[in-house]
Design brief:
Layout lengths: L2 E5 L6 H12 L2 E4 H9 L3 H24 L5 E4 L10 H8 L1 E6 L2 H10 L12 H19 L4 E4 L6 H17 L2
Parallel strand pairs: 1-3, 1-4, 2-3, 4-5
Helix pairs in contact: 1-7, 2-3, 5-6
Length: about 180
């Protein structure tokens, strides 16, 4: 039985790597944000607006506990998921946790491409975005570093890099079982 939680900052490649790894392993992939949106028939932005961050984080925690019971699944969490309640401890108990570590400069490049998909960074200048990434990443690192494993998420641009990363992740997980 496989239950793998991918955690890390927005733009780290959790969905990209998670989908590819799930395909290779022939198991399900769940993006926690998509799961929540499907369940509530609302976007994450709408849920944030209607419930505030505290209300959204409660919804997120409940959804995490639902998908955390599934078997043979790769779960890509939201960037903030591990940082609230006992979420990181819960994920560590329920399965394998992998922190996709990515240099802030690479995150900047990835996030700059489509900021409209991420309302928290919309309208920021380059300097504001760089500063935002640095500050929020620093605040989240103590939670991310509590993952059972750390994986380099910087090489997920091309199909070949994704394929190599899937193999590397598989080796990492197999070596530690």
């Amino acid at each position: 039985m496989i239950r793998l939680f991918l955690i890390g900052y927005m733009g780290a490649g959790k969905t990209t790597l998670g989908k590819a790894y799930a395909r290779k392993m022939k198991i399900s992939f769940i993006d926690l944000d998509w799961y929540i949106e499907e369940r509530f028939h609302k976007t994450i932005n709408q849920l944030f607006s209607e419930n505030g961050e505290d209300g959204f984080r409660l919804i997120e925690r409940k959804a995490l506990h639902e998908v955390g019971e599934f078997e043979d699944v790769i779960i890509s969490t939201g960037g903030g998921t591990p940082c609230y309640f006992d979420n990181i401890e819960y994920m560590n108990r329920q399965g394998n946790t992998v922190f996709l570590e990515v240099n802030p400069d690479i995150l900047f490049v990835r996030l700059k491409i489509a900021p409209q998909n991420r309302p928290i960074i919309q309208g920021k200048t380059d300097d504001e975005l760089r500063s935002f990434i640095a500050k929020s990443l620093e605040a989240r690192l103590p939670f991310y570093n509590r993952a059972q494993r750390i994986f380099d998420g910087s090489k997920l641009q091309t199909e070949k890099q994704i394929e190599q990363s899937v193999c590397s992740l598989q080796q990492l997980l197999n070596a530690t079982h």
